[in-house]
Specification:
Oligomer: single chain
CATH topology of the largest domain: TIM Barrel
Structural class: alpha/beta
Distance between the termini: 60 Å
Number of strands: 39
Strand content: 25-35%
Mean pLDDT: 94
CATH class of the largest domain: Alpha Beta
Radius of gyration: 27 Å
Largest sheet: 6 strands, mixed
Length: 789
């Protein structure tokens, strides 16, 4: 009998999110609904809607036998250069915590746990397993731990994942101070778990308070944990604590022998699921420019509509991570959805205008297996030390990039072997192509039977990073007309993860920009959709600029020069540079909005729904305006946060720089005016310092001065006595009919009144006059009122 059987804990399945449920075996044939990214959800400023999305992903997990979803990501996108910023919510800790908690509540209402990640300061992908985040205690407590504290206090996620990186010199999974904050200060009762392969020391991790090592079977916190207790190296109470927390998780998820499966809050029909995704996508869109009311489109006066841009026909839904999700069911592109929405009286024509900048899987280039079946042939073979190898597994797949954690098909786990991808491409004419190969072992690229490239295995300390990046080495070759066979083979040694990748980039024989310009000149109006590709934001690699690809900027400039009636839709889930913003009439940021992107965009463009999103991140004018620009890891792999603090909108407020578009900003299809803001609580309820100050409310009145109904987000910012800069402390959404006014009470965040006293190592509440500002964005002067504490 195993120790898990003794405690009655049955197998529990933890799977990646947060944009959807990934395949248990990283199989492209396993599909799930793709949800809006964290930044898109944050742009809704709508906890109820975010909770609906959480409930939907919880249902998807329930239907797939998943007990815990790895999400949400409550790290802060301190910089838009962070490779994983697309998963994160907002640069503001309060907004991130409130919306993250709503997501957690939705997921767990279905009896599926949330593993909220990554504690803490895991906002840099460069050297993420070794780098050290150096933060002052006040910054750590007030900013970077704050979203997790809000989630724990208001939603109690059933698991918290410790980050790979170090904080102030100690790896998070071994950081007793950090884990002590979770378990002692916040009284957290869930499981504290490592990131995958994030443990390398039994005593240090277990003593610090880590409860569970992933992935299983445990190497450091399994039998070694028990043996260390017997040897007296780890207190027995620490083991009991870990066991109690894991059995509590089993109880909560219905994975305890003799226990009862949790009852889901509600199971949505297929139509209801799509409705949630469409509403969430549309609510996340942020209208930044609408000169001459170019939107919504006036279809009565539009006869020729040009849809331009690569993302119109091939939208981007997610970044490059282990958590890549294959979409479930039909995905309607923005191009097709716009065609359907405008109807037969409007002629719609399309040009891409720009080519993909990153290499593509062979299957996306129309490859076939050697037998002619569409796709690529994947084979697993025995090691070929001498003589011919045996083929252990063979199947035609619709991908040319594969990852296996643990067992490799046909081979098993922890043994050497080989993987091979073979695909044939049909070329209409001789051309120069770029081909790429990579894997966890020594990889070889063969073209028409000739070895053309050998790729060394990744560095031992960066295998997970190389796999996450789907890293390849590339070579440019002149390929003949006709059928060309491409083969990539990887010979790998025993390991806990194995991977192989084959990609290609076709030769560019024409300039798509010129065709797009001609089309734009022909049209009455242009809808131009540009943005990221899936690999342009990715796990284990940071960006070097916040700019879009140069080809996208060139396309916008060229199209706007010939047609002033241009609306640009930016499909990028991060703050981006928009150097051409003043040259276009319409500008909409749509993030990574989930797989109902097309329908949601068509609805907003045609006026069936109105954009109501507000920016959850500040948009800089230039790279140099980004907090901490020009700084990075030092020789000891330390990132000093002092160079970028305060970040976000507080950076712009205190540095004297102006953002292109401020945090909280967004337009609609009507106009609003904030009329008044009055403190609504003459007496204040005050708890202990750690709990902050309760009972502070501000009554706001908002007037719709336009000609159509609309929704606005009124935001409440606070500044402490003697403090520098305002911080978000509350918000509310108001739906107001045309010409009418509406009022609401905004409850100020109780924890927002606290400040960490480093010298005394405790929370304090600054006494005196606090300034509260009701505003429509962080740069808006708004209406100021004061309270005295």
């Amino acid at each position: 009998m195993t120790r898990s059987e003794e405690t009655g804990v049955e197998e529990m399945v933890l799977l990646d999110g947060p944009v959807g449920i990934v395949s248990k075996t990283m199989d492209e044939r396993d599909t799930s609904l793709i949800m809006p990214s964290g930044t898109a959800l944050a742009a809704t400023w709508n906890p109820e809607l975010v909770s609906e999305v959480g409930q939907l992903i919880g249902q998807q997990g329930l239907e797939r036998g998943v007990n815990v979803v790895l999400g949400p990501n409550l790290n802060l996108p301190r910089s838009p250069l962070s490779g994983r910023a697309f998963e994160m919510f907002s640069e503001d800790p309060y907004l991130t915590g409130m919306l993250g908690a709503a997501w957690v509540r939705g997921v767990q209402s279905q009896g599926v746990g949330s593993c909220t990640k990554h504690v803490v300061a895991n906002d840099t992908e460069t050297e993420r397993r070794r780098m050290n985040s150096r933060l002052e205690p006040a910054v750590l407590r007030e900013t970077y731990l704050r979203p997790f504290e809000t989630a724990v206090r208001t939603a109690n996620p059933w698991m918290l994942m410790m980050a790979y990186n170090r904080v102030n010199g100690t790896h998070c999974s071994q950081n007793a101070e950090l884990i002590g904050i979770l378990k002692d200060d916040w009284q957290y009762d869930g499981v504290v778990v490592s990131d995958w392969f994030g443990v390398d020391d039994t005593t240090a991790s277990a003593t610090a308070g880590l409860d569970l090592e992933m992935p299983g079977p445990a190497k450091f916190l399994g039998d070694r944990f028990a043996d260390a207790v017997v040897a007296g190296d780890i207190p027995e109470a620490r083991l009991r604590d870990a066991v109690e927390r894991i059995t509590r998780l089993a109880d909560r998820t219905g994975r305890r022998t003799g226990g009862t499966a949790p009852e889901p809050a509600r199971i949505l029909t297929s139509a209801e699921q799509r409705d949630v995704l469409t509403r969430a996508a549309a609510a996340s869109f942020v209208l930044l420019e609408n000169r001459d009311n170019v939107l919504p489109l006036d279809l009565a006066r539009t006869r020729r509509l040009a849809v331009v841009g690569p993302n119109a026909a091939k939208p981007c839904f997610q970044g490059g991570t282990f958590a890549t999700v294959r979409p479930e069911g039909e995905v309607v592109t923005p191009l097709d959805a716009i065609r359907d929405a405008v109807g037969p009286d409007v002629e719609v024509a399309y040009e891409a205008g720009a080519e993909p900048s990153s290499p593509l899987p062979l299957t996306e280039l129309g490859s076939t297996a050697p037998d002619g079946t569409p796709g690529a042939l994947l084979e697993i073979l025995t090691p070929a030390a001498h003589g011919a190898a045996d083929v252990l597994y063979s199947e035609v797949r619709q991908s040319s990039s594969f990852v296996w954690f643990g067992s490799v098909p046909g081979l098993g786990a922890g043994v050497p072997g080989r993987a091979r991808i073979t695909a044939r491409l049909k070329l209409e004419a001789a051309a120069r192509w770029t081909l790429g190969a990579g894997g966890t072992g020594t990889s070889t690229l063969t073209v028409n039977g000739r070895h053309v490239l050998e790729v060394p295995p990744p560095a031992p300390d960066d295998v997970m990073g190389a796999v996450a990046r789907a890293e390849t080495h590339q070579i440019s070759l002149d390929l003949p007309a006709g059928e060309v066979e491409v083969s990539v083979e990887t010979a790998f040694q025993p390991g806990r993860v194995q991977a192989i990748t084959a990609v290609a980039t076709p030769e560019k024989t024409t300039d798509p920009l010129q065709d797009a310009v001609k089309l734009a000149d022909w049209a009455d109006t242009v809808i131009l959709v540009v943005g990221d590709e899936q690999g342009s934001s990715r796990e284990s690699a940071d960006r070097t600029t916040a700019a879009l690809e140069p080809a996208c900027d060139r396309l916008v400039e060229a199209v706007a020069a010939v047609n002033p009636e241009t609306v640009v839709v930016v499909n990028a889930s991060r703050a981006v540079l928009l150097p051409w913003a003043e040259k276009v009439k319409g500008l909409v940021i749509v993030w990574f909005p989930g797989q109902e992107f097309g329908h949601a965009l068509a609805s907003v463009l045609t006026g069936a729904s109105a954009p109501s999103g507000r920016l959850p991140v500040s948009f800089p004018e230039q790279d140099e305006d980004i907090p901490g620009w020009g700084t990075g890891l030092d020789a000891d792999l330390t990132l000093d946060y002092a160079a970028s603090e305060p970040a976000g909108y507080r950076h712009f407020e205190t540095s004297g720089r102006s953002p292109r578009y401020p945090f909280g900003y967004g337009l609609g299809y009507t106009e609003f005016k904030l009329v008044d803001a009055l403190p609504a609580s003459p007496t204040l309820g005050r708890g202990d310092n750690a709990a902050g100050v309760e009972g502070v409310e501000v009554h706001v009145t908002l007037r719709n001065t336009g000609t159509s109904p609309g929704r606005d987000i009124v935001q409440l910012y606070g500044k402490a006595p003697g403090g520098t800069g305002f911080r978000l402390m509350g918000f509310t959404a108001l739906d107001v009919p045309a010409g009418a006014s509406a009022g609401a009470r905004i409850t100020a965040d109780p924890l927002g009144f606290r400040r960490w006293d480093t010298a005394k190592s405790r929370w304090v509440i600054p006494a005196g006059d606090w300034e509260l500002r009701a505003a429509r964005n962080a740069a808006d002067e708004g209406i100021l009122c004061r309270i005295t504490l």
